[in-house]
Write a structure and sequence with these properties.
- This protein has about 180 residues and is an alpha+beta fold.
- About 20% of the residues lie in helices and about 40% in strands.
- It has a 4-stranded mixed beta sheet with strand order 7-4-9-8, sandwiched between helices. Strands 1-2-3 form a 3-stranded antiparallel beta sheet, with no helix packed on it.
- The longest helix is centred in the last third of the chain and has 18 residues.
- It is globular.
- The relative contact order is 0.19.
Length: about 180
């Protein structure tokens, strides 16, 4: 059985450059009322770019909420009304300088469905051609080329903890495995 929550009221708390925060009062299936704090996010795209040398192009960047730099796949936020495929192509070029002959949609994920409506779309990029990166003025990152097997080891050893990266890498590898068989 699916249990729904009916929104009774909604109040906007914050409207920022990237997110909005609202508090909804909901009626529970049993009739009780409860508050839900909800982050509205425009969504994003992550790209698993794999070179002809079986390396995954990773970016390492400082993430303020974590107070440290972490490994991630190239990714970015969707602009309002932007097509996620075009966003992914743009972000791959901006962050790494690469373009891809093959840009394969792997599906989407919900990074934090308990409190955010964010949807992250994932792509596999192959047949890569290098170019010049064009980072945003407030964007600082290092690009690293890491063998696919080492990326998997880093995930399994808890050295890579970013959800979109883990989801994207494993989905890419499974996609390629099924394509070969």
């Amino acid at each position: 059985m699916i249990y729904n929550e009916k929104t009774v009221s909604s109040k906007e708390i914050f409207d920022g450059r990237i997110i909005r925060l609202r508090v909804d009062m909901v009626k529970m299936p049993g009739g009780n009322l409860a508050e839900r704090e909800i982050i509205e996010h425009p969504g994003g795209v992550g790209i698993v770019a794999i070179t002809d040398n079986d390396e995954i192009i990773m970016v390492k960047q400082f993430r303020k909420p974590l107070e440290k730099a972490i490994y991630e796949i190239p990714a970015g936020k969707l602009d309002k009304g932007e097509d996620h495929r075009l966003c992914g192509i743009r972000e791959l070029g901006e962050e790494t300088g690469y373009s891809a002959e093959n840009f394969i949609y792997l599906g989407h994920m919900y990074p934090s469905p308990g409190f955010a409506d964010e949807v992250t779309h994932l792509y596999l990029a192959t047949g890569l051609t290098p170019g010049e990166a064009h980072l945003d003025p407030d964007e600082y990152l290092d690009i690293e080329y890491i063998k696919t097997s080492k990326v998997v080891d880093m995930i399994m050893n808890n050295e890579i903890n970013d959800a979109k990266t883990i989801f994207g890498v494993f989905k890419s590898l499974e996609y390629m495995k099924r394509r070969e068989s």
